[in-house]
Amino acid sequence: MAKQQFKAESKRLLEMMINSIYTQREIFLRELVSNASDAIDKIYYKALTDDRLVFDKDSYFIKVTADKENRTLTIRDTGIGMTKEDLENNLGIIAKSGSLAFKKENESKDGHDIIGQFGVGFYSAFMVADVVTVISKALDGDGAYKWESTGADGYTIEPVEKDSVGTEVILKIKDNTEDDSYDEFLEEYRLKSIIKKYSDFIRYPIKMDMKSSRRKEGSDTEFEEYEEEQTVNSLVPIWKKNKSELTADDYEKFYSEKHYGFDKPLKHIHISVDGAVRYHSILFIPESMPFDYYSKEFEKGLELYSNGVLIMNKCADLLPDYFSFVKGMVDSEDLSLNISREMLQHDRQLKLIAKNIQSKIKGQLQSLLKDEREKYETFYKAFGRQLKFGIYNDYGTHKDVLQDLLLFYSSKEKKLVTLDEYVLRMPEDQKYIYYASGESNERIEKLPQTEMVSDKGYEILYFTDDIDEFAIKMLMTYKEKEFKSVSSGDLGIEADEKDKEAESESNDSKELFDSMTEFLSGKVKNVRASKRLRSHPVCLTTEGDVTIEMEKILNAMPN
Ligand code: ADP
Ligand code: MG
């Protein structure tokens, strides 16, 4: 019996695979450029051991050319090229990776910079092209060959003429359909921006002929178009450069080029780790809050690169929520990518990196606090609230990371102080860390409840942010000192003793207080005499954990 053919179905299968692996079709260019870079890497590694070869960096490059008229896009490289067998094996068999094989063969020596490993990236070209033609001449081959395919139907291979070693991948860009346009993949500026986005740090120059216009010679009003070959990628990523060679300006430029923010970064952190997990990272603490910071639209995360190739725009797992304001990137060669390179296979390495990064950010904030107080206060005004949320969330599990970073306005110092500074200044007989809550510092200053504590010479922290008291409740203590609201019933100072005396006075005026309590029923629990007042006739105090201010906030919360 004759075998049935799967032909039509396998074509559909390839299409399905390609279109379901990748979320964006622009990544085909990342894949083809990565392959070209791998091919140049291979010739470079070969040159290291082969005396016949001299690797002259200038003669190795990748060139991307769009031809609008013929609707073709060509990616040419001067890499190692493919023999007829290579074309059959590496492009003819889906999921076969010549690069992975190369890496395994050379594991002990070289090859760790090679990007390819899955053997599917090449086929992403079919997301944007009807026909893919590959013309290649291998370093150790017998002439050049042309491989051509319209998808899973199969491919043809035939000998062709080609002078130099290397590969040309020619895509016949799809025609536009009623609801889909492919023209963007023939536009130089669009192509350049895709390259900048994903392949900016490919080690070899990616060249394009870019059109520009200039003033005609001898004329003030007439312009002429001209074409110029440009290298569009940045080649060496700033994070792989030596810190000592970089200036604050370089980091600022990187910050704005990457569109991390419109402001200037307040501080940068440049990390290179070569330990249990290897990674490079450049992080920024912004100066001001992004306009959407507290909106649903805001997405935290860092850019994630694998070997210099962008794989994720916002990797949220790299940043805890309380440091969500941090911007920047991480590049690691130790990540296990999934097949699309858009996600990670395992998160063990990522967790290690995240933990490491978290402690670096904390360290940087602490040194900012210590050495550049003014800058820290700018930061704190923008993002302090986020730190306090961080303490409050997850039942205070992160308090150790965050408590030293808090600042509150001090009644004594008339400026922001840390808890540590407060505790250091505490007189010996002071038992508690006192705080007072209110809408503003001015209002708190006028609270009758603050008088007695202040008169005693004790410092009071002013809580003007909704979250303050909630966060403090999670801390419970700082350096073994409990927090105490000035409006709580028991202030732990000697006047409390006097309050007891006052109690007997309360008994003397029992009738008056009883009728006042009755009159205010539902509003207060009890009316009694107090010795804690100085210049005010009355004040409110609370019993138990929830203070008046917290009650106000809780009552105002939507149910
Ligand atoms: P991967 O890059 O993950 O190995 P691809 O599907 O992108 O998978 O490519 C398959 C294989 O084809 C590569 O491993 C490589 O051996 C070969 N290849 C692709 N493009 C080129 C090129 N420009 N030059 C040389 N070899 C290439
Ligand atoms: Mg590849």
Automatic annotation (TrEMBL):
Compartments (UniProt record) = Cytoplasm
* Pfam families for this protein: HATPase_c_3, HSP90
Q: Where is this region: A?
A: 1-341
Q: Supply one GO CC term from the record.
A: cytoplasm
* Gene3D superfamilies recorded: 3.30.230.80, 3.40.50.11260, Heat shock protein 90, C-terminal domain, Histidine kinase-like ATPase, C-terminal domain
List the PROSITE patterns hit by this protein, alphabetically.
HSP90
Please give the chief subcellular localization of this protein.
cytoplasm
Q: Care to name a GO molecular-function term for this sequence?
A: ATP-dependent protein folding chaperone
What are the binding positions for ATP in this chain?
Answer: 31, 35, 77, 82, 90, 96-98, 117-122, 167, 341
Keywords of the record, alphabetical order, are: ATP-binding, Chaperone, Cytoplasm, Nucleotide-binding, Stress response
Q: NCBIfam families attached here?
A: PRK05218.1
How is the subunit organization of this protein annotated in UniProt? Homodimer.
Q: Which HAMAP family match?
A: HSP90
Q: What does this protein's UniProt record list under function?
A: Molecular chaperone. Has ATPase activity.
Which family is it part of? Belongs to the heat shock protein 90 family.
Name this polypeptide is given: Chaperone protein HtpG
